[in-house]
Amino acid sequence: VFALAATAALLLVLLVGIVNRGFRTVAQSGQAVVTMTATLQNHGEADMMHDAMRADVLAALLGARRGDAAAIADAAKDSHEHEQAFREALNANRALALPAEIVTEFEKVAGPLDAYINSARDIIELAAKNGAAAENAMPAFLEAFSVLEKEMGAISDVIKHEAERVNAEAAAAGARFSLMLWW
Fold first, then answer.
1. Residue 67 falls in which region: left (phi positive, over 0), alpha (psi -120 to 50) or beta
2. Would you say 75 and 63 are in contact if contact means Cβ atoms under 8 Å apart?
3. DSSP 7-64
4. pTM
5. pLDDT digits (tens, 9 = 90+) for 78-88
């Protein structure tokens, strides 16, 4: 009877250990999915700000054509807000525990981001003083836009690949845990 009770206790302790390990694995997989979801959300926000700043520049140019100083001032204000939101979204991703490949992509975007933001600021400032000069600066701005767009696209591809991998791992961990419980 003692041997049977000891065997049952040993099996119970072993079962609790296995279940505990399974729960930890599933929880870690779930946390990885949450991190990738936050990364995708932040990156989407940053990408929207990339486009919003282009719209701000175009609004400033339109204001300059119309001689509307208030429209140019609004575009400058909006551009500043969009720049802040852009940087906040990128910084939020930098604060996450992400794979080195994604971190490397975020580091690559710093230079193009600064060039783009500076070009947007310059054109909006020019629009307030000299609309024709602001319009002449557009090709350089659009080039900075395209360079940043390419970098943002590269980041999107790396994040998407990692998100797919994390999601597959989480699904596999859940399936293994379910199978383990049935056994």
1. left
2. yes
3. HHHHHHHHHHHHHHHHHHHHHHHHHHHHHHHHHHHHHHHHHHHHHHHHHHHHHHHHHH
4. 0.79
5. 999 999 999 99
